[in-house]
Amino acid sequence: MAGRRPNLLFIMTDHQRADSLGMFQAGVEVTPNLNRLASQGTVFSRAYNTCPLCVPARTALATGKYPTSNGVVFNDWQGLRAGDHKPIHQYLAEAGYEVGHIGVHHIRVTPTLEERVAFARWIDNGGYARYFGQYLAENGMAQEPAGWREAFRRDVLEYQEGGFVPQRYSNTRTAVWPYPEEGFKDSYFCRQGVDFLRQRRDEPFALFVYLWAPHPPLRVPEPYASLFPPAEIELPANVGVPARGEPPGRRQGISAQLAEGISMAEWRKAWAAHLGLVRLADAGLGRILRALEGVGGTDSADRERPSVVVFTVDHGDHLGQHCMYQKMEMYEQAIRVPLIVRVSGCKHRTFDVPVSHLDVMPTLFNLTGLQKPDDLDGISLADALTSGALPPERPVFCQYSGNPTVGDIRRTVITPRHKYTYTPGDAPELYDLENDPSEMHNLGVDPAYAQLVQELHRQCEAWAERHGDWIEF
C-alpha cells in the first residue's frame, strides 16, 4: 500500500464453518458483525486451510509454509518437530510494528513465538486462567468441581504410529456455561483486544486475536445458549449420512467414531450450541471492529493511517455431515474456511476460485510494504484486493497426518471443480464440487474417472516431493 504502513488487525476463531457467514438459523442472523465486515471487504469464498487441525493449520499460516515443509504436521504442543521458520509476527516486529497477541496460542516454531518477538501485549490461556480465578473470587463464585470435563468427552480408538490406542475427544454434549458471559474466555480476550486498540501510539500496530469459540466442549453462556432453539434448526440433508462409495476405512477415523449413535435431536442441540458460540464470538469481534474504527483505523474521517483487517478460521466442523463430528477429515466442512480481507480504500469484492491459507502471509507482505522472502509456499492476493484482478486458477493442497502423533494419513488436492484425496491403503476419493457440493458421491471408485484420479494423484505426489513429505505415493 502506498503511503504510511497500515495497521493490521488479524482475527481467527476455532472450528467456525465457512457457511456460518451469511447464515440465518431459527430466524437469527448468525454473524451480523462478520457479515458487515464482508460487505466492506473482499471475500474469498473458497479458501482452504492446509490441515484440518489446530496447530498445523495455524503454524502453516503464520510461517507461510506447508506443514511438511515447516515440520509441524500434527498437534505438536511441545514443538518437538518445529523448525526455525520466521512467523509473520516477527517480520512485522522487525519492521517497527507494535505487535500484540491475544488469545489461544497454537503456533509452534523454534525458537518459540514468545522468544522471537517483544510483544507489546501477550495474553494466552494462562493469562485468562489468572483473570478467571480472580473474577470468581471477586464475585463470590465457586470454581466448578474437578472432573466436569469428563462428561464432555467420548472414548474412541485412534490409529497412532501403526496401531489403535484408546483416546478421549470432546463429544456432542451441550450445556449452559454456569457463569455470566463477561467471564467467558472469548469475552475476556475481546475486551483485551479493545483495550489494546485504544492505546495511543505513534507506530503502526499489528494485533493478532485468536478466539477459542466455537471450539468444544459445547458449553454456552447465556443469552447465547438460548438464542437458537434446537427444534428450529434446519440441518443439512447429509447430517448422519455417509457418502456413497466412502472408503472402507473411513469409519475407523476419529470424526466418524465421534458421530456414532447421535440422534437428529442431539445434532440439533449440537448445532444450536455451536451457533451460539459463533454468535458470542461475533459479538466480541464486533466490539473489536468498532474500537478499530474509533481509533481512526478505517476509512472514517478522522483516520490517522490505513488499516488491513483479516478474518479467518483454522478449520471448520462437520457437525454431523457425512456422519462425522469435529474436524480431522478432508470434507469441505473441515478444510474450507472463511477468509475476509478488508483494506482501506478498496472496494467490496467476492472471489470463488480456490485460494490457500498459505496465500495470507505473502498478501500481508505486499499490503504492509515489507520485503517478501523467497521461500514462502503461497502467492500474494494483493492484486485481487486492490484492483479486482481475478486470482489465478490453480490447485491448492491440504494434508492430515494424525492428531497427537502420526496416525491417519490424507493428502488432498482441490481444483476449481474437483477434490481428490489420497489415503494410503484405502480407496481414492474424488468429488465433483460443482455438481456435488455436499460430496456425497465418491467418483474415485468409478472406472470412468480413473484418468482424472491418476492426474490428480500425480499432482499430489509432485507437491509432496517439493514440500518434504515422507509418505509413499
Shape: globular
- Approximately how much beta-strand content do the residues carry? 15-25%
The number of distinct β-strands equals 21
Radius of gyration: 21 Å
CATH topology: Alkaline Phosphatase, subunit A
Strand order of the largest sheet: 7-6-11-1-13-15-4-16
CATH homologous superfamily placement: Alkaline Phosphatase, subunit A
What class, by secondary structure content? Answer: alpha/beta
Give the uncertain stretches in residue-range form.
297-302
* Separation of the first and last Cα atoms: 43 Å
Mean pLDDT score, rounded? 95
The number of helical segments is: 13
What's the number of domains? 1
**CATH architecture classification:** 3-Layer(aba) Sandwich
Identify the CATH class. Alpha Beta
Question: What helical percentage do the residues reach?
Answer: 25-40%
The main β sheet shows up as:
8 strands, mixed
